[in-house]
């Protein structure tokens, strides 16, 4: 199963869903596709669209998925990376009315350059990314949380 995650941002991300459907039509994608669509209104007879689902259900869908295709939101990406899943991430872009700015481009670039995900710039690159995902081994994600807490504690102790 392929899980497509659009998150909860209020602006739609039709381009990613249309490209996913195109890949089903051309036979590139032959397995089930489940979409967490959020606020993106889209109709499809080929994909299961679930606007909002519970944390537990989302966690289960991530576990069941062979590949995660996500918008460039940090939470959507990290959830897949922490589960050692191949994650393909594509940023929502302001020029297409998908977000307020292009910060997701930077997020995708950072995770891609670290080897955690397969980052693509446009949904049109999804076909190639899906082929790459078949043999992709993500670099394990190590949280910097403890380091940040330590830095804050050191700072507070000096004040």
Q: How would you describe the overall organization of this protein?
A:
40% of the residues lie in helices and 14% in strands. With 159 residues, it is α/β, with parallel strands linked by helices. The longest helix is centred in the C-terminal third of the chain and has 14 residues, at 145-158. It is globular.
Topology readout:
Blueprint: E1 2-5, H1 14-25, E2 33-36, E3 48-50, H2 55-64, E4 67-71, H3 74-82, E5 87-90, H4 103-113, E6 118-119, H5 126-133, H6 145-158
Parallel strand pairs: 1-2, 1-4, 2-3, 4-5, 5-6
Low-confidence stretches: none
Query: What percentage of residues falls in helices of 4 or more residues?
Result: 40-55%
Oligomer: single chain
Give the neighbour order of strands across the main sheet: 3-2-1-4-5-6
Give the DSSP E fraction (strand runs of 2 or more residues): 5-15%
Alpha carbon gyration radius: 17 Å
What is the makeup of the main sheet? 6 strands, parallel
How many helices? The count is: 6
Q: How many beta-strand elements?
A: 6
Report how far apart the termini are.
Answer: 52 Å
Q: Structural class from helices and strands?
A: alpha/beta
**Average pLDDT level:** 93
| SSE order | EHEEHEHEHEHH
Shape call: globular
Q: What's the gist of this structure?
A:
With 159 residues, the chain is α/β, with parallel strands linked by helices.
């Amino acid at each position: 199963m392929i899980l497509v995650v659009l998150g909860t941002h209020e602006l739609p991300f039709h381009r990613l869903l249309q490209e996913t459907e195109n890949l089903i039509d051309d036979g590139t994608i032959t397995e089930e596709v489940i979409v967490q669509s959020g606020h993106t209104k889209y109709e499809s007879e080929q994909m299961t669209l679930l606007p909002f689902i519970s944390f537990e259900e989302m966690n289960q869908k991530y576990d069941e998925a062979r590949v995660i295709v996500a918008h460039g939101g940090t939470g959507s990406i990290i959830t897949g990376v922490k589960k050692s899943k191949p994650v393909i991430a594509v940023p929502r872009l302001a020029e297409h009315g998908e977000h307020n700015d292009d910060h997701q481009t930077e997020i995708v670039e950072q995770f891609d350059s670290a080897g955690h995900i397969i980052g693509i710039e446009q949904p049109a690159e999804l076909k190639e990314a899906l082929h790459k995902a078949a043999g992709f081994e993500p670099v394990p994600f190590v949280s910097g949380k403890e380091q940040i807490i330590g830095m804050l504690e050191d700072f507070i102790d000096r004040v």
